[in-house]
Amino acid sequence: MSSRRRAVAAAASVLLTPLLGVPPAGPASSAQAPLYLAFTSLAVHDAALEGQRHGTHAAAAAVAVAAHDVLSEYFPGAATRLDADLAASLAMVPDGKKQDAGVVIGAAAADSMIASRVGDGRDDASVAYNKAPAPGIWQPAPGGSMALAWLGFVDPVVDVPPVALDGPDPITSAAYAAEYDEVLRLGSTASTERTARQTAVAQFFAPNAVVTYRDVLCRYLDGRPLGLLPTTRLFARINAAVANSFIQTWRLKYDVGYWRPFQAIAGAATDGNAATSPQENWVPLVANPAYSDYTSGHAAATSPFAAVVRQTLGDDTPLVLRAGGLERSYSTLSALERDALRSRIWGGLHFRDAMHDGYYLGHATARRVIRVLH
Predict the structure, then answer these.
(1) Closest to 177 measured CA to CA, from 297, 321, 352
(2) Where in the sequence is the domain holding 99, given as residue range(s)?
(3) In angstroms, what CA-CA distances link 368 with 240, 276, 363?
(4) Helix (H) or strand (E) holding 330
(5) Residues 197-248: pLDDT tens digits?
(6) Distance CA 364, CA 366 (A)
(7) Exposed (0-12), middle (13-18) or buried (19+): which is 133, by Cβ within 10 Å?
(8) Neighbours of 228 (CB within 10 A)
């Protein structure tokens, strides 16, 4: 293999290896993982842009060092593996001035990113959800709290304006009654109307969507490489758009505090809507995380990912998703989005409006991020 091809392979090994050190899979950790994916991919893209000015070898070294240094800062427990991966990547780049230049460039890109996130609002324990109980208002389980309440107050990773939304449907409205009826019939463990396919889809999309989508894109690009800068740009746009979408989503969850279906169904006698009625012992198919309905965090993971990949590779990008030891194939991103959206209703986690508005938020955020990340 030529030295240039080894350099490209070294860069690819960084770009297409799933992020190391991301918190374990789970509802809360999957919501904060996009922040660190964004920090890493933005630093990597900056390093690639500057490194390319010095040649392929410099860019490959810069990418490897930038990824290593950002991840080492935030996940010191993964240092041994990160150091080994960096050494393996740099071993594929010829020694000399180009590699040395790349190392300096990558370190500078990482340092700049890390410095820019100091005091950005992450892990602020003083932020606590405390909305008073009322019809339509989400409440944590007794003795519990809202998971990651601080996330909605974190500085955006890319400076684009938030997306204007009209809020959830009023609980006294006909639109709310229709959404209530849909999730009541289709979203419980005991549903007799949900089909076997709908159940399978709901359960398939229940695990960490951020990990699932990164995995499928890495596998897709491994067989269809784009080149260094197009790849770093793609990941930077995806991860920045997802992170910004999560930040706004969590602010809405905090500010609006709309109740989830299982709370709405138990409390329907209090909602002032003659078209709804409570049902005892209604249990959602998928366990609900400790934050409110509006807007959907799953939508914040899915819609920006799909929007950026669609703009880059086309809607007819075939993807084979893997989750929970299972696979599902999609011939278009639109088909993937449709299933992912409906999965949260069939799983009893969300009302349809939380999904539709979440997709609008994610698509609009992605368009804004694409315009500023070149």
Answers:
(1) 352
(2) 1-117
(3) 10, 39, 9
(4) strand 326-330
(5) 999 999 999 998 998 999 999 999 988 989 899 999 999 999 999 999 999 9
(6) 5
(7) exposed
(8) 24
Burial class of residue 316 (count of CB atoms within 10 Å of its CB; 0-12, 13-18, 19+): exposed
Q: Which two tokens stand for residue 153?
A: 């107050």
Exposed/middle/buried for 34, CB within 10 Å: 0-12, 13-18, 19+?
Answer: buried
Regarding whether 132 and 113 lie in a shared domain, the answer is no
Q: Strand pairing partners for 188?
A: 284
Do 218 and 103 share a structural domain?
Answer: no
**Predicted structure pTM score:** 0.94
Helices 27-52 and 56-74: crossing angle in degrees, nearest 10, is 150
Model confidence pLDDT, tens digit, residues 34-69: 999 999 999 999 999 999 999 989 999 999 999 999
DSSP 309: H
Same domain? 365 vs 272: yes
Which candidate, 52, 340, 276, places its Cα nearest to that of 330?
Answer: 340
The rounded radius of gyration (Å) of the Cα atoms in the chain is 22
Q: Which amino acid is at 42?
A: L
Q: Answer yes or no: do 90 and 184 share one domain.
A: no
